[in-house]
Design brief:
By secondary structure, the chain is an alpha/beta fold. It contains 7 helices and 28 strands. Helices cover 18% and strands 26% of the residues. Strands 5-4-1-6-9-8-10 form a 7-stranded mixed sheet. A 6-stranded parallel sheet has the order 12-15-18-21-24-27, with helices on one face. β2 and β3 form a beta hairpin. α3 crosses α6. The longest helix has 13 residues. The radius of gyration is 22 Å and the shape is elongated.
């Protein structure tokens, strides 16, 4: 099955379909996104607006730009949302298919669960909550050149203590997988993109929960399989927490994180069609204003993520925060490092700070929550 041809020719930058092993992609999007609640009560994490587009759209645009056309989404939580939005993927220049887990199977189990849809020899697997900037073609090229059974994209970070580490030898072969430690021997961490030979996926137990990171990869090392590390300093961010979600969205808006889906629309703010911005409002720090949202006069938004249909009233300040679909922030309210759920109503002069989370539909009256004494 030739999954990479478009109109019978190869475009610049595409993976050559004439190679013996064509390439397919698998994207793992089955997680519940509990760390991003309340936003993920109504929508899967990969479908949350990031720089005004579903996060998954940015990832799919990178996959398409790498010349991969055949993509399987491994779904579980709110699975129908993906197929209803993307359909067959043709609008993105992709051929999309969907496989749903009846019960959560973990990363390894989720990969094994889509095996029947995989016909290529080379399978690239992406975690659906990672914002990355590495060139997927380089990872695949390194995999082929090394002759590896599995290739892991590894990224170097300034402080690896919060992550599991993946040391490699002088030839780039992975030597072990280490859990989080206060004295890590390397700054290389698992970036969540893998290239598999199809037969390796066949070896994963079917129908049971399996962790690819904690079970499959260590087992392959013990069996003497060749696991290669593709190491770089590319942009990388796990979008699982509100802080990272806000920073990732701002980095997309400002062009720090690459996304073919945004083209050349970069700057201190991104205001989508149908949104209104009142006189004197200040939008900075990679702020994004969704479709149909309204920003009142003299409001100040710094690194804010405003979902479609939300309202920020006159004089309000929103910093490093997410305002959900149809939510309202009242006049002169201060919202900082906060998540406001869909349809919530925050009264005038309220102050929500330092990790506050407001559940969908909640109404807070004027002056209802404050840290300051003055009103």
């Amino acid at each position: 099955m030739d999954v990479n041809t478009v109109g019978g020719s190869v475009s610049e930058g595409e993976i050559d379909p004439g190679k013996a092993d064509a390439v397919q992609a698998v994207v793992l999007v089955g997680g519940k996104g509990t760390r991003l609640r309340p936003l993920t009560i109504s929508a899967p994490k990969p479908m949350l607006p990031t720089a005004g587009l579903p996060f998954l759209t940015h990832l799919l645009s990178r996959i398409q730009a790498a010349g991969i056309r055949d993509v399987v989404l491994s779904t579980s939580f709110k699975a129908s949302v993906f197929s209803e939005y993307y359909g067959d993927g043709s609008k993105l220049g992709l051929h999309l298919r969907y496989v749903t887990e009846d019960e959560p199977l973990g990363t390894g189990g989720g990969i094994r669960n889509v095996l029947d849809e995989l016909t290529a020899d080379t399978i690239v697997v992406f975690n659906g909550d990672v914002l990355g900037g590495t060139d997927v073609r380089d990872v695949i090229g390194g995999h082929r050149e090394s002759g590896a059974d599995v290739t892991l994209h590894l990224v170097r970070v300034s402080d690896p203590r919060a992550f599991g580490c993946v040391p490699t030898d002088e030839n780039g072969r992975v030597t072990e997988f280490l859990e989080k430690t206060q004295d890590p021997p390397t700054d290389q961490i698992n970036a969540g993109t893998y290239v598999f030979r199809r037969e390796i996926i066949e070896s994963i137990p079917a129908g049971v929960p399996v962790s690819v990171e904690r079970e499959v990869f260590p087992r392959l090392l013990l069996e003497g399989k060749h696991i290669h590390g593709h190491v770089d300093h590319a942009y990388w961010r796990d979008m699982g927490t509100p802080e990272d979600f806000v920073r990732g969205s701002a980095d997309l808006v400002r062009g720090i994180a690459p996304s073919p889906a945004l083209g050349d629309r970069h700057g201190e703010s991104l205001v989508h069609e149908g949104a209104g911005v009142g006189p004197g409002a200040l939008l900075i720090g990679g702020t994004v204003v969704g479709r149909g949202a309204e920003i009142g006069p003299r409001a100040r938004l710094d690194g804010a993520v405003i979902f479609d249909g939300a309202v920020v009233e006159a004089g309000a300040v929103v910093e490093r925060s997410i305002v959900g679909f149809g939510a309202r922030v009242g006049p002169r309210a201060l919202i900082r490092d906060t998540v406001i759920g869909d349809g919530a109503d925050i009264g005038a002069r309220c102050e929500l700070l330092r990790g506050a989370r407001v559940w969908p539909g909640i109404q807070i009256p004027d002056n209802g929550v404050r840290f300051s004494t003055d009103v």
